[in-house]
Amino acid sequence: xxxxxxxxxxxxxxxxxxxxxxxxxxxxxxxxxxxxxxxxxxxxxxxxxxxxxxxxxxxxxxxxxxxxxxxxxxxxxxxxxxxxxxxxxxxxxxxxxxxxxxxxxxxxxxxxxxxxxxxxxxxxxxxxxxxxxxxxxxxxxxxxxxxxxxxxxxxxxxxxxxxxxxxxxxxxxxxxxxxxxxxxxxxxxxxxxxxxxxxxxx
Length: 202
Hints:
Layout: E1 9-12, E2 21-22, H1 23-28, H2 35-44, H3 48-53, E3 61-62, H4 71-84, E4 89-93, H5 101-112, E5 122-126, E6 139-143, E7 146-151, H6 153-159, H7 162-184, H8 192-201
Parallel strand pairs: 1-4, 4-5
Antiparallel strand pairs: 2-3, 6-7
Helix pairs in contact: 2-4
């Protein structure tokens, strides 16, 4: 087949790459500094708390010669670099796998989703994350290099195929801990008469 791409493309790899420079230089990556868009980018990519913990904020040196970042921090840093590049097409390789569910939801809402910074861009996301599927315009399930299901979220749910089962299973798993918590908080009623009867039997 043939693929024609119009405009610039940005790629976020599954294995984040960080160069030996400050956090800020890693995000700007040679582009002109725009203070307003920079602040929007780091906020959307959930980096503000990290800046507060780093000794010199976003001027902190990272990489082999600087401070080591966690996997989640590296993932969000490389995502911020791609967002700041203001490309037209974004290829995102499982960039949600290194972050927890709470941060993942923040990224979906503020970067990938319909109200996120990339809402007007073409986004191709390879992921195992179930929550992000509800925000997708179109979904393809790929197995062994072949597309086995595809369609919009509503179409796939109506088909009741593998994707629908995955989404329902994930929803049941999320509700199970809540049910367990409710059970653990339930009161136990003790019948005094039954206790007296038990003592008499002894």
